[in-house]
Amino acid sequence: MYRYYRYNILVFILLLSLIQHVFPARILPPISPPEFPINLSANATWHTFSKFTNAGKGASFSGMSELKKYFQRFGYLDNFSDTFSDTFDDEFESVVLKYQKKMGIPVTGRLDSGTVSQIMLPRCGVSDYITRKHKIIHVSKKYAFFDGEPRWRQTSKTENLMLTYAFSDGHMIDYISYSEIRDVFQRSFGRWASTIPVNFTEVDDYRTADIKIAFYGGDHGDGEPFDGVLGVLAHAFSPENGRLHFDTAETWAVDFGSTGSNVAIDLESVATHEIGHILGLAHSSVKEAVMYPSLGPRIRKVDLKMDDVKGIQTLYGSNPNFRYTPSMESDISSGYRPVRGEWVKWVTLLVLLVGVLVC
Ligand SMILES: [Zn+2]
Ligand SMILES: [Zn+2]
């Protein structure tokens, strides 16, 4: 009897040591980009909103009207009053709920720390929802279009739609070379061109180009003034307007290795996003999608996800050479799937267990 138990314990220890080899590591979900810390820049636009953390219905805070203006600006309040109360009322709760749903974050109806961090993140200036002022947006499940689903139309009988783009003569930045900026945009346009039957060509004549790229600071005459460091980074207009503007107050970067600033923004990520607007996509609720509204400093997000691809192909059809790649999957669309060969592990474990029982 004693020998029987001793033998059983030995098998159990052997089993435990084998399990480590059979299951070498826990399969973890893909790592999300780091969140933007609330106190990253005390001078950044919207940094004062951190004082509203944990506010819920009934709370009253001096300055909460500014937060209401923020939501009004991005299409969450269909209200054109310039004056708002500082109280967290029923209407404001419904605004917070709508925002949390759109951003794909936990829907609590409170200004929990995750929600406030999200609000403070730098973002695109294009509105998230339809209001009487901003003629946006037909919302699908995840990707979205502008109201009426505008897109560029073919003017000649060429096989593919041809769009030209040009850079402004007088409104560019000088700390990144012109050739580097051209390369950034060539790659950004190329990503969209690989999914849809549209060709993009750089031309010299800014005046006649379909897509006009420029850097502006503050009020620059289109009714959408920029706001300084972080806050709104850039904006673009729906088809077939073609204007694409970047905020000169940002520290634009093409390579974080050579840019030490903690508020540096990746030019290529923002360019790829804004070209999506130029082509007719509005904001997506899929966090990993290029068309998600916000982007933290020092984060690079240039790869189109399936949500972006499905949205743009709904408008323009598919490029015949389009090829799906696994990098297009996002956390939401991929999920966990057992990998090939995993059944071998389960069979091994089962055999070991049977072995213990027989012993
Ligand atoms: Zn945008
Ligand atoms: Zn503008």
From TrEMBL:
<dbReference type="InterPro" id="IPR002477">
    <property type="entry name" value="Peptidoglycan-bd-like"/>
</dbReference>
<feature type="domain" description="Peptidase metallopeptidase">
    <location>
        <begin position="148"/>
        <end position="318"/>
    </location>
</feature>
<dbReference type="Pfam" id="PF00413">
    <property type="entry name" value="Peptidase_M10"/>
</dbReference>
<keyword id="KW-0862">Zinc</keyword>
<dbReference type="InterPro" id="IPR036365">
    <property type="entry name" value="PGBD-like_sf"/>
</dbReference>
<dbReference type="InterPro" id="IPR021190">
    <property type="entry name" value="Pept_M10A"/>
</dbReference>
<protein>
    <submittedName>
        <fullName>Metalloendoproteinase 1-MMP-like protein</fullName>
    </submittedName>
</protein>
<dbReference type="InterPro" id="IPR006026">
    <property type="entry name" value="Peptidase_Metallo"/>
</dbReference>
<feature type="signal peptide">
    <location>
        <begin position="1"/>
        <end position="24"/>
    </location>
</feature>
<keyword id="KW-0732">Signal</keyword>
<dbReference type="InterPro" id="IPR001818">
    <property type="entry name" value="Pept_M10_metallopeptidase"/>
</dbReference>
<dbReference type="InterPro" id="IPR033739">
    <property type="entry name" value="M10A_MMP"/>
</dbReference>
<dbReference type="InterPro" id="IPR024079">
    <property type="entry name" value="MetalloPept_cat_dom_sf"/>
</dbReference>
<comment type="similarity">
    <text>Belongs to the peptidase M10A family. Matrix metalloproteinases (MMPs) subfamily.</text>
</comment>
<keyword id="KW-0479">Metal-binding</keyword>
<keyword id="KW-0378">Hydrolase</keyword>
<dbReference type="Pfam" id="PF01471">
    <property type="entry name" value="PG_binding_1"/>
</dbReference>
<keyword id="KW-0645">Protease</keyword>
<keyword id="KW-0482">Metalloprotease</keyword>
